[in-house]
Design goal:
InterPro entries: PER33/POM33_regulator, TMEM33/Pom33. This protein is mostly helical and about 290 residues long. It contains twelve helices and no strands.
């Protein structure tokens, strides 16, 4: 009986953040009509008046930009649940937090697809356009690792993407609240500015590293052939991404490093041939590179 009560208590804690996000989202959508009416009744604002700041100004901005606000909330959910899966606090189940982090990222990817894609069409051209979107790649990525054996490293790309893409909107919200200066704002500017390229390179390196891990999981009995094959397809999508060249750059850097290792004087012929065969086989599997946007 005690175990059942303890389990119920943990489940309530695990669902608390999700319920909070749903309530906040509902309030934003519900309040948007009131904000629109107030704007119409107030007439044209004074162009010389200073911008409003405070909690109400932040709420008004979020209600007038509902999709961006929901994206920000789902990204915060990814960050929070990733942290809880690594450092289980307050009795949260790490396995459940792991899945909820991926679910939050799936929601983010779905919202981004809603922003970028036109009206749904059941045509081959629309399907090809859909599979070229980075958001579609990470929607499939999230679903794949939700249904597969847990790999903790799989949370790193979604965590870093959520941190990077939520930084600029967090700065905007802090500015609306009147806290545009401070340690939190400085950290967000540091993430969105000087460290952006390093974060994207780390994400791409993690994407590549996960491929051999899924193969090792397959031979250890923890993974499945479907997981390894599906992740290989995901990696080919990332390699052929129009908007993100970092995965291709990581493969290029790895090729240079392996070639330098194989061509060192005194290298064993067997090891040298193995390195070159691995490079040739990987190049053979690489998809064609499309024009970048």
């Amino acid at each position: 009986m005690k175990d059942i009560m303890y389990r119920l208590k943990i489940d309530r804690k695990e669902h608390f953040i999700w319920k909070l996000l749903v309530i906040i989202s509902y309030l934003f959508f519900y309040k948007s009509k009131e904000v629109a009416v107030n704007k119409m009744s107030e007439g044209e604002p004074n162009q010389h008046a200073p911008p409003r700041q405070g909690f109400q100004a932040a709420v008004d901005h979020m209600t007038s930009n509902k999709i961006d606000s929901l994206l920000w909330l789902t990204r915060l959910g990814t960050i929070v649940f990733t942290a809880l899966s690594m450092i289980p606090l307050f009795g949260f189940n790490p396995q459940t937090s792991y899945q909820r982090a991926l679910m939050s990222n799936a929601a983010t990817s779905a919202l981004r697809l809603h922003q970028r894609m036109p009206r749904v069409q059941f045509t081959r051209e629309y399907g090809a356009m859909l599979m070229m979107e980075d958001s579609c790649h990470y929607l499939l990525y999230s679903i794949l690792f939700i249904i597969s054996y847990p790999i903790t490293l799989s949370l790193l790309p979604v965590f870093l993407f959520a941190l990077l893409h939520s930084a600029s909107y967090s700065l905007l919200i802090l500015d609306k609240l009147g806290h545009s200066s401070g340690s939190a704002s400085d950290f967000m500017r540091w993430v969105a500015g000087p460290r952006q390229r390093s974060i994207l390179r780390l994400v791409s390196f993690t994407e590549v590293t996960l491929m051999p891990i899924t193969v090792l999981w397959l031979f250890s009995g923890k993974g499945s052939l479907l997981t390894a094959f599906s992740y290989f397809r995901f990696l080919t999508f990332r390699y052929a991404s129009r908007r993100n060249p970092y995965t291709r750059n990581v493969f290029h850097e790895m090729r240079i490093a392996i070639e330098a290792f194989a061509n060192e004087p005194g290298r064993m012929p067997v090891l040298k041939n193995l390195c070159h065969k691995m490079i040739n086989y990987t190049s053979y599997l690489a998809p064609p590179i499309p024009a970048q946007q």
